[in-house]
Write a structure and sequence with these properties.
This protein is mainly alpha-helical. The chain is 76% helix and 0% strand.
Length: 186
Amino acid sequence: MGSFARYLNRAVAAFVLTCAFVMPGLSAPVDLTQDFKDLQSNQQVVWHRAESDIQRAWSNSGSPALDLLLERGRQAIAAKDYPVAIGHLTALIDHAPDFAEAYNMRAQAYYSAGEVGPALTDIGMTLKLNPKHFGAMDVLGSLLDQIGKPKDALAAFRMSIAIHPHQPPVLSAIKRLEAKIDGQEL
């Protein structure tokens, strides 16, 4: 990335963060107890609404300006511009170090960029701050599988499914790893 692009990213981040202190967030913590129960429902409309509500709550930092940094990070990940995503999400973490979703998204950016060590560190922080983050458990399982720890990966995937049983890619990973591990133990 060129020096002008780095300067521009820093300038935008500085502006956004300045706005964060001028326009503090007003959101109160949301009680997600019923939503987590609803994830267990067999009715798709019920668990899908709960999943959306949970993800929306997790993405709300309480500050519109900080939420903008999160959104910019997500957009950069979608555009496969991982250094920019990591930059936005690092700025967000610097100003909101207790915001679990910032670590989760940065872990995804690191993972997509092939940086397994930093991704594992950020997933650890995500789960420390939000132990029910089933998406982070999914990423953890993928990372552990990638580095050759199938039993640990299977455990992470099973933890994710225990919280949110309607994740087809996670269910497929569990099935694949169970077959792989059973084949190794024969």
